[in-house]
Amino acid sequence: MDKKLIQKVKRVVAGAEVKLLVRTVEGYRVVAGQESSDLSRVATSTDITTKADQGKRRYITLAEEYTITTEGYYVVNDLAFEALEEAFYAMRPIEFQLVVADLYTYVGSAVVTDLPITFAENEATYRITLVSHEELEKKTLRG
After folding, report:
1. Which of 33, 65, 55 lies closest to 131, judged by CA?
2. 68 pLDDT higher than 60
3. 37, 54, 84, 121: most buried by Cβ count inside 10 Å?
4. CA 88, CA 12: separation in Å to the nearest integer?
5. Which residues share a beta bridge with 43?
6. In terms of residue numbers, what domain contains 97?
């Protein structure tokens, strides 16, 4: 394969290009101050091995779940962060988009399970943890 073509196809995504947006009363808004995001996907499986499998283990997937963790600098009066706080206290899911550069976005609904704000001497930071409520859908933004 041509080296120039390989260079065009490969794309490194930096953390600064990944943004968490949540649905607010004014539509989707980026959570201000973001520094990093993690998307963890886990499948729960069960062993379905029988004697007929002759010592070879077999598994099936029963359930999938995802967790999104975003960390950043706390910004006072951020509409998106306020929507997260409201969802947390109301114990209801919130719709979100996790946009990865200009390539694709993950869309779903999740519950806020962790929302600490750390007030240090010179800064305030947050950590947001969203856990799956509905299926996570991946949408391509460009072809």
Report:
1. 65
2. yes
3. 84
4. 34
5. 64
6. 3-140
Q: What is the pTM of this model?
A: 0.81
DSSP string, 59-94: EEEEEEEEEEEEEEE--TT-HHHHHHHHHHHHT--E
By CB atoms closer than 10 A (0-12, 13-18, 19+), residue 67 is: middle
Report CA 3 to chain centroid distance, whole Å: 33
CATH (domain of 46): 2.30.110
Torsional sign, CA 97, 22, 76, 89: negative
Residue-wise pLDDT for 117-141, tens only, equals 999 999 999 999 999 999 999 999 8
Q: Are 75 and 48 in contact (CB under 8 A)?
A: no
Would you say the C-alpha torsion 16, 19, 25, 26 has a positive or negative sign? Answer: positive
What single-letter amino acid sits at 142? Answer: R
Q: What is the pLDDT of residue 51?
A: 85
DSSP 81: H
Give the CA distances from residue 82 to residues 86, 104, 141, in Å, rounded to whole numbers and listed in that order.
Answer: 6, 26, 27
Tell me how far apart the alpha carbons of residues 33 and 43 are, in angstroms, rounded to a whole number: 31
Q: pLDDT tens digit string along 11-63?
A: 777 778 899 999 999 999 999 999 999 999 998 888 888 888 888 888 888 88
